[in-house]
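Hey L., structure's done. Input below.
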Amino acid sequence: MLVLGPLGFLTPWLLAALAALPVIWLILRVMPPSPKVLRFPGTRLLIGLKDPQPVARHTPWWLLLLRVLAIAALILGFAGPIWKPAPEQGGQGPLLIVMDAGWAAAPDWPQRQARALRALDRTSASGQPAALLLADGHSEGALPFAPATELAAQLRAFQPAAWETTYPEDLDRLFGQTPQSGLQILWLSDGLDHPGRTALLTDLRGRGTVTVVPPEGPRQSLQLVAGDQPSLRLRSTASGAAPDVLAIGTDPQGAARELARLTAEDAQIENGISTRAVAIDLPSELRNRITRFQLDGQDSAGAVVLADDSVRRRKVALVGDDRASEGQSLLSPLHYLRRALAPRTDLIEGGLSDVLQAAPDVIVLADLVGLPESDALAEWVDQGGLLIRFAGPRMAASEFLTEEPLLPVRLRSGGRDIGGALSWGDPRTIAPFPVDGPFGGLAIPADAMIRAQLLAEPSPELAQRTLAQLSDGTPLVTREDLGEGQVVLFHSSANAEWSNLAISGLFVQMLDRLVQTARASAAPPETEAEGDIFWTPVEVLDGFGRLSTSQDPVPVPAAEFAKGPAPGAPAGLYRSGERAIALNAGGPMREATWPGVTVEAARRAPGIDLRGWLIGLAALLFALDALGSAWLAGGPIRRGKVAA
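Output:
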């Protein structure tokens, strides 16, 4: 920016065009206005005569002045004049620009780039070197200083990250080639506090003058609050009205569009941060189509919540023996299934033929065999349904168990329990779950014991179809794909008769994991490590909240994945085995404080932009020029008439 007294220019090189105004004056002066045309027969007598005092040989001076002033106003307007602009960074020493580059910097990113580029231009004019620290977590080694012009292209090409602003940890290594004093530091902050910011600020204050440029507007984030009734949490650094939350998903034709608008509740303000709850109060059919929630008018990864299976509610049908009317609810398998599934699903109950008409996502059969509706049930599974079956005394006593359809494996009749022909000396515990299966990562209680089960006939496919097994290697849960759907069998009962699994929290988690796989494609991860879980990105967000397919997915270890979005693990949708989960960037916020530095916005107002006024003035002058030209030509204006 060029500053001339109280007036500054954003693009001062355009002022060079003012030198052409004298030339334009001369050109316009030698071009006379259009002569008047009068048709009078008597003028033939004047042929050959010369006018001793011609009046139309030159353009009048007042018309020339209008045209030159109009052109000058355009030149000045395009040069970007600012009345009393805020003084910018531009000392005598080298320049260091620190740019917060997380998702919170995205909403006003173009303004940040423009501010940093102006500082680089001033430093380049003074012949001083400059350095650029982009706080996205990728800075390694010593910070190099180079001519300011070489950093402009890097700054223009850089985009904010889809994770929190991340500062380098090893400051001694970072500033190994940085002057110890006389440094001019320009810090473009996103307004939030981040780990390592205080240490970085303390170090920079000892090296020179620090000027902080705060964000232009409030920072806002959106977070999913998981639970039996998932909701959203909206945080903002402003206490004013909250924006609506857009629920975006696919319509019945498969096109992505806005499905609903959610309104935030009243704010609770603490330490300058306002927090509002946003209830996801939508019908299950609508909520299951939502793919993302986004703050209206906010373009950042922190303002987006990608919806995964934790948001959707499946319709689950329970079919089986219900003894609640007989006062024996604790003996009923449906009692335990209700308590496990009700908080996170929409339950329906009834006969098999009735629940099939309700088109559920999941059907649970508790100790039922020989169903007359087996053909209709098989067709429902083939079209994408998930059938979960539980063993029990009825199934064990069935004479036709080996012929029972819709089982993932062939079963032996009679079962296996304590005291039987195939008895155990003691109840068996559950073996650790495979990391690439639906139960991967679940903790198994030490007191979870299985006292009886239905045994599977040995086969080459048995190991592949086993999702969980006991400590002796016999299957506890098996599964087989059938068309677009799948059939799952728990080889033990759904109540506490054969095991204490049904009264443990593991039972709830296992059912929840299975229900989440209903009508969802299962794709194996690209990389797995024995004994550990890796999450592979499928779709990722950029800093502006735009979703795209991951081009070169790199699996992320579960321990790193649990820490949240970070370099190497951007916000997005991830998959591990058969499980899919969203990693979202929004979360808790804390405003940054800046002791001992100069905050640019607090020092002076940004100034008054005169571009619009000057361009408007040029338009007015051109209009007056048109009227003056018409008057000289003897048009309707000079005659005091209005043309029809």
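The first strand starts at residue 2 and ends at 4. Confidence is low (pLDDT under 50) at residues 521-531.

-- N.
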